[in-house]
Design brief:
The complex is a heterodimer of chains A (525) and B (114). Chain A is mainly alpha-helical and 525 residues long. Chain A contains 19 helices and two strands. The N and C termini of chain B lie far apart (51 Å). Classes of the chains: A mainly alpha (525), B mainly alpha (114).
Chain lengths: 525, 114
């Protein structure tokens, strides 16, 4: 087997193994020298990203990839002597997983590149990079695994690493307070997930998602498990009414990490969609569960944006906008779920709504990451996040200002940026489902724009303030990371169709197509 | 009836744990509540895998008779390890907060709001 074949065959294992190894070797390499550690961390991340892209390419060209750990062949899901039960841990990477892999790879590389510069003034960074790479491991594991208990383990890796990295700069205890809030909620959510896993195991003697999906009966116990999973994962992705941790955690984490925490929350969102569509699909009462998700989405949108407007801390404000944007994803996919059983309505608008929601996940990770990185660049240069103390920075930080404007217009859904492309799909399809929902979504976009106009004015406009007279532009690696994200934001806004056809539509198909998911693991149809 | 005793214990433990997490103000006591909830989840998993009269699921040593299910035991072991990591992290947060704020009462640990 040539090395290239080896990588292609083992890609699902490598995207978890490489960052895990890089993470735990990081403190040792950090003892040698700081540059060696930086090269090691960046090299590990780049390698992971390359493997993730290879894996995504394989999935989008050849269909779902499964990887069985410890089997004689990597695609031998059911051992010959097991009586038709997939007993091993299986990674099932379908188009939806590959889609999330791409997001995580892009965000991971850019955020790490930014960190190398933005964190360079702080001491004891070995632990920081270890935790960061563990977050990467957690996200890749969560989106790739096809085993529910494995999902729980990666979720806990992600929670532990995120909590550690949020608290990393103690900041007089404030960061620890935020991390504590996040972590206690995450732990309670994880216990709920563990109970749900126990319920499935007790009924179906299986942990494999495909196996559970095949035998799903939708009994009373399954409904209880569904409630547990939806509550825990909606909390982890920061949907109202379980959003309290989000502004604290997002504002107190180092800025570069905040941009990646957005992706980490979306991994939970992925988990929510995976549970609803792959485990249950049409067996559940689609209209009721769809409406529950839609209502969660609408509440997140409206409450997120109204809470954002009065904020004084720029990162806290952006965090509330992140809650609000999560609402769009829940709205789009919720509408798709509500009409799932009905073929006519699904093809009329349900599927477009899902595509819009899923496309918005990608766009959100890009423009929100960009906005958090610009906020981080400003904090790096002037040392405050208080909007009332800022002003006139546009004179000195021209590039940061341009990137901020791009991100702000994208989040408000102004053409030709990527936020517009996905929001338009959501508006059009949701309008056919229920006009009121589409109107609420548009009003929220207008409020978002209003809020960002105010922030833009407060940070960049006005005369030069004397205390910031000699503020310099952000360092080059930080500008480069922001520039790449801004380029993606513009590119996806100008040419959304190839992206939608190429990766978004297959991802939405993979979610809806439960029998395809089962067949890829268990064989047959 | 006796069969259901472990599951009744799970319900009681869940109840005690939830009440502790929700009602107590002391961070250490909240952590204890979380630990009780974790124990409930672990007991739930192990009870699911128990078969009456089954022997320990060690394949090479077992006589060819009924064994209890090995998978829930593996899950429980993993979940215990995760629980240890969780407790350690929360305790270290409590230490830092006590040093910085001089209290572990969560009513006083609320400088972030809005």
């Amino acid at each position: 087997m040539t090395p290239a074949e080896f990588v292609v065959t083992n890609a699902p294992a490598l995207i978890v193994a490489i960052p895990l190894l890089a993470a735990f070797a990081c403190p040792f390499i950090g003892r040698i020298s700081t540059p060696a550690r930086n090269v090691w961390v960046m090299g590990g991340m780049l390698l992971t990203a390359v493997v993730a892209f290879i894996l995504a390419y394989t999935v989008f060209t050849n269909g779902t990839v499964i990887y069985v750990f410890g089997a004689s062949a990597t695609n031998l899901a059911i051992p010959l002597d097991s009586g038709g039960i997939p007993i091993r841990i299986i990674f099932t990477v379908d188009a939806m997983s590959a889609f999330m892999d791409i997001i995580c790879a892009i965000a991971g590389v850019l955020v790490l590149m930014y960190s190398l510069s933005s964190e360079s003034r702080n001491s004891s960074l070995d632990g920081y990079y270890t935790l960061f790479l563990l977050m990467i491991t957690g996200v890749f594991g969560m989106v790739s695994t096809g085993d529910l208990f494995n999902f729980f383990v990666f979720l806990e890796i992600l929670s532990l690493a995120s909590a550690g990295i949020i608290a990393y700069r103690i900041d007089g205890g404030l960061a620890v307070e935020a991390a504590l809030k996040y972590f206690i909620l995450s732990t309670l959510g994880a216990i709920l997930i563990l109970f749900a896993i126990g319920i499935y195991y007790g009924q179906y003697n299986a942990l494999n998602m495909a196996m559970i999906a095949q035998s799903m009966q939708y009994t009373l116990l399954d409904r209880i498990a569904l409630v547990f999973l939806v509550a825990a994962l909606a909390m982890k992705c920061g949907a109202v009414p379980m959003h309290f941790w989000t502004p604290d955690a997002y504002s107190m984490a180092p800025s570069s990490v905040t941009a990646f925490l957005v992706v980490a929350s979306q991994a939970s969102l992925y988990g929510l969609f995976r549970v609803v569509f792959t485990l249950y699909n049409v067996t559940l009462n689609c209209l009721v569960v769809g409406w529950i998700i839609i209502i969660l989405g609408i509440l997140s949108m409206v409450i997120g944006v109204t809470m954002a407007i009065p904020q004084k801390d720029v990162k806290r404000l952006m965090a509330y906008h992140a809650i609000s944007q999560t609402g769009y994803m829940l709205l789009g996919v919720g509408v798709g779920l509500a009409v799932l059983g009905n073929a006519a309505l699904s093809s009329a608008f349900g599927f477009t709504a899902m595509e819009g929601g899923i496309f918005h996940i990608f766009n959100h990770a890009m423009y929100k990451g960009l906005l958090f990185l610009t906020a981080g660049a400003i904090f790096y240069r002037i040392g405050t996040r208080d909007l009332n103390k800022m002003g006139g920075l546009g004179h000195n930080m021209k590039y940061t200002m341009i990137f901020f404007v791009i991100g702000a217009l994208a989040i408000a859904g102004i053409p030709p940026f990527n936020g517009f492309a996905s929001k338009l799909m959501i508006y059009e399809s949701v309008y056919l489902f229920n006009p009121l929902l589409a109107i609420i979504a548009m009003v929220v976009s207008i409020l978002t724009l209003a809020s960002f106009v105010k922030v833009f004015h407060a940070i960049f406009m006005g005369p030069k303030l004397p205390e910031y007279a000699d503020v310099k532009e952000a360092p080059l690696p930080m500008l480069l990371a922001m520039g790449v994200l801004a380029a993606i934001v513009i590119l996806f806004g100008l040419f959304p169709q190839p992206v939608v056809n190429g990766i978004v539509a297959p991802a939405a198909h993979a979610l809806v197509d439960q029998s395809g998911y089962i067949a890829s693991v268990l064989g047959g149809a | 009836m006796l069969w259901n005793l472990p599951f009744i214990t799970v319900v009681v433990l869940t109840f005690i744990g939830t009440i502790t997490v929700l009602m107590k103000r002391n961070l250490i006591k909240i952590l204890l509540g979380i630990n009780i909830l974790e124990s409930a989840a672990n007991l739930f998993l192990v009870s699911l895998g128990y078969r009456e009269g089954g022997v320990a699921p060690i394949f090479t040593l077992a006589p060819s008779e009924l064994m209890v299910l090995p998978t829930p035991q593996a899950l429980t072991l993993t979940s215990i390890v995760i629980g240890v990591a969780t407790s350690a992290l929360v305790l270290s947060f409590a230490m830092v907060l006590h040093k910085k704020y001089g209290t572990v009462d969560i009513d006083e640990i609320r400088r972030l709001n809005g």
